Amino acid sequence: MTWVNAVIEGILLGGLYALFACGLSLMFGVMRIINLAHGDLALLGTFMIMVVSQHLGLSPFAALVIVLPGAAAVGYALQMGILQRGMRGGELAPLLATFGLSVVIGNLLLEIFSADTHSLSAGALTTASWQISSQLSIPALGVLIFAVAVLVLGGLQLFLSRTSLGRAMRATADDPGTAELVGINSRRVYATASAIAIASAALAGMFFGMRSSFDPTLGPAQLIFAFEAVVIGGLGSLWGTLVGGIILGVAQTVGAQIDPAWSILSGHILFLAVLAFRSGGIFTAREVRV
Amino acid sequence: MSLLEVSDLDVRHGLLQAVRGVSFELDEGETLALVGANGAGKSTLLSAIAGAHRPNGGTIRLDGRPITNLPAHRRVGIGIALVPEGRRLFQSLTVEENLLVAGRPGYWTLERVLEAFPLLPPRRGHRAATLSGGERQATAIARALMSNPRLLLLDEVSLGLAPAAIEDVYRSLARVTDAGTTVLLVEQDLTRALGFARRVMCMLEGRIVLEGDPAALAREQITEAYFGLARTGAPSR
């Protein structure tokens, strides 16, 4: 039964990884930018939710109402202010810009909040679970996170395939120059994609803070997990990202079951195995050209 | 007042000056064909009018309003649409999505465009990457029409198309001019250009060297201008 438990826990953890990863995937798909500050921006979201909920006496969920629009604004400004300029300087410039941003955010968080660990309380949800049998229980928070991940990924997929803004986003991803010729403001489309990506990162950051304790140094690790989920699933495929997150999560929890020290390592080993034997990922992109 | 007014336009590609001091006017409802040898500056002129290429000098006016520095996506809003060289469709989008992405309210709706281009309705759900040459050109022109332009710029209409496909595309284009849209087209096929347009302009090395009514111009005059023979006086070399 402990193995079944580990697999279930891994699947639910995969939902969190997929939530971290979808913004990364979106920015790569639309702008061809790998945002190395993604993990730190998510962690910034975690801290902002902590600050808002402490100062206003709100639950973290209520704090989202304030933090999500803020995160979207940060994403919009990030694209308009920094990345747009970087994109004119070739492919490497935005990569370096986000790397610098990652260092700046990590150190700012450390400066303001010190290296202490913090946590976000989800109230009764933190400990609630469904007892299936004496050895098997399913945590309510994990199920909620997984459900939100499915909703966000599904919503994003619908947005891209059905709405006119989503269509404009795919057209701009295909060919930004021609998109301008049919009346699309490619800068605004890019900034919108970036706003959605950073808001989704903040949402993932909140669940991350509810699930485990956190400190300002954890951003880059979240980036790596998100990146691995995207690559395992296949670049540019949103549902692939969910599957990639689940595979990564299961590898980590099953690895931990064998030996606790194997948890993170087994995830990385699986990632390397996918790169070695199936470098395009499990699902190849259809929505967005790579 | 003319719809489009171009004066003293200079456009460079790095060190190469592709368009040199070009001036012309285009009235509402006119059809103008731009002919000339490869590298004469025709495509560069069109992309400068559409806003894809910043000019180095001169002005472009639409309805008397200067638009020389307006970004391309805002020129679509005031009525300029370009069908670029090489069609440049959005490959991962379907034909219908390629059309809808350019959609602006006006006479040309999805239904009207599909009716004007009989090649397209059977392919509307297919991805643009899977289309034949004629279908791609039809989609590109239809996409430009979806923005309901007052001025339609067409680059290399028949280049790379089979004769039957050229026939189809021109039949559809006739419906566009019938609807009152002003058309400026670049065409390699001289006979096509002269048959379609009511005015013809010939470019050579970045300059306009001949302009007039196709019916009034002798074919030799145009070929001489086309190859730059008139300037040297005699067909030497």
Task: Please count the helical segments of chain A.
Answer: 11
- End-to-end separation of chain B: 44 Å
Q: For the residues shown, what is the average pLDDT of chain A? A: 92
Strand fraction of chain B equals: 25-35%
Provide keyphrases for this structure.
heterodimer, A: 290 residues, mainly alpha, ABC transporter involved in vitamin B12 uptake, BtuC, two-stranded antiparallel sheet, 75% helix, 2% strand, B: 237 residues, alpha/beta, Rossmann fold, six-stranded mixed sheet, four-stranded antiparallel sheet, 9 helices, 33% helix, 25% strand, globular
What layout of secondary structure does this protein have?
The complex is a heterodimer of chains A (290) and B (237).
Chain A: H1 2-31, H2 38-56, H3 60-88, H4 92-113, E1 129-131, E2 137-139, H5 140-162, H6 164-174, H7 176-181, H8 186-211, H9 219-233, H10 238-258, H11 263-277
Antiparallel strand pairs in A: 1-2
Chain B: E1 4-13, E2 16-26, E3 31-36, H1 42-50, E4 57-62, E5 65-66, H2 72-77, E6 80-83, H3 95-100, H4 110-116, H5 133-146, E7 151-154, H6 163-178, E8 182-186, H7 190-196, E9 199-204, E10 207-212, H8 219-227, H9 229-232
Parallel strand pairs in B: 3-8, 3-9, 6-7, 7-8
Antiparallel strand pairs in B: 1-2, 1-4, 4-5, 9-10
Helix pairs in contact in B: 5-6
